Amino acid sequence: MTITRKKGPLYLQIKKIIKDRIIQGVYPLGTIIPSEPQLENEFQVSKMTVRNAIKELSQEGYVEKKSGFGTIVLRNTSYTMLSKGKRFTEILLEEGHQLEKRLLSSALASNEAGSYAYELFGPFCQRIERLYILDGQPYIHFIHFLTPAALADKDSGATEINIQSLYDLLEEKNITLEYFKDRFAVEGATSATRLLLDLPEYAYVLKRSRNSYDGEGKLIEYSIGYYNTELHQYVVSYDT
What we know:
Layout: H1 10-23, H2 36-43, H3 47-59, E1 63-66, E2 70-73, E3 85-86, H4 88-94, E4 99-110, H5 116-121, E5 124-134, E6 137-146, H6 166-172, E7 177-188, H7 191-197, E8 204-214, E9 219-227, E10 237-238
Antiparallel strand pairs: 1-2, 3-10, 4-5, 5-6, 6-9, 7-8, 8-9
């Protein structure tokens, strides 16, 4: 995997990659992540760079380094201000599932006049399409619409497109989502969704539409998720 200084400090980039792998189950809870020499070779960086990345992960409680043994994964869920409820993906990981996220596309899109996206964001928005793979099988087809400023780099104005954990990325840009409005429906899958989720013709899916707002009540994101509930039911878990 290639990392460059243009994307920021190398150790932070490596930290984020390893963290994503932990959260997605590539490095399962209780297992040992690759050794420092292996990570140095993979990312083509110095020993100090890798050690700084591991140190950051340790401070955040994801891993613990044990001398003569290796670096063990202690936690595979992210602390978040998103809500008092657990993220659905965290529930899947706690159940022992493997979850992979694939970025299908990310681009500045023109919204058709009269469309819901136009009503929310005006003539333009950032459109991101992703696919979640559960235990090797396509499970969720996501389409996100965001205000372009949400993912823009403050210095260059360029938009981040290498997106694995979208909400973590928003938090890194000091955007905290504090209020959500979800709507659920059962609909016939579109041809694009059927193809991505490997569904038969005339298949139905669970559709979840979400509006996400920051603490000031400003809309940041509108997303649509199409779930193949034959593979796994949608679960919501709340803390009381």
